[in-house]
Amino acid sequence: MAGFNKFGGGMNMQNMIRQAQKMQAEMSKKNEELANTELIGVSGGGMVEVVITGKNEIKAVRIKKEAVDPDDVEMLEDLIMAAIKDAQSKAQGLSKEMLGAFSGI
To answer: What is the domain range of residue 67?
Structure first.
């Protein structure tokens, strides 16, 4: 029969290809949105902020003067790490929210 193949029909295969292309375009758009979305991780009650994109690219680190104690550099290091982890957690949550439908998460 014309128009059919071993996969059960030419039209079904064409529809599957169109759907895959549409899904790929949607994923690309969501990935671009993630790359352009900025999230802020905070620690120390706002003493340290880390700005990160939805794709985990660190854009900025902001430290209030009060957080800088030359006699306790370790505390500042801990605050920075906590702010980074907070930002990454937010980015991961956003990524799951935006891309979960594509990855089955």
So the answer is: 10-103
Verdict on whether the full-model pTM lies above 0.85: no
Domain assignment of residue 3, yes or no? no
3-state helix, strand, coil in the chain (%, to 5): 60, 15, 20
- Report the domain count for the chain: 1
Query: pLDDT tens-digit profile of 64-82?
Result: 999 999 999 999 999 999 9
* Cα(55)–Cα(2) distance, integer angstroms: 47
| DSSP secondary structure code for residue 20 in this structure | H
Report yes or no: 3 and 24 within 8 Å, Cβ to Cβ: no
Dihedral, 48, 45, 64, 84 alpha carbons, nearest 10:
0
Length of the chain: 105
Q: 89: domain CATH number?
A: 3.30.1310.10
Longest CA–CA span in the chain (Å) reads: 83
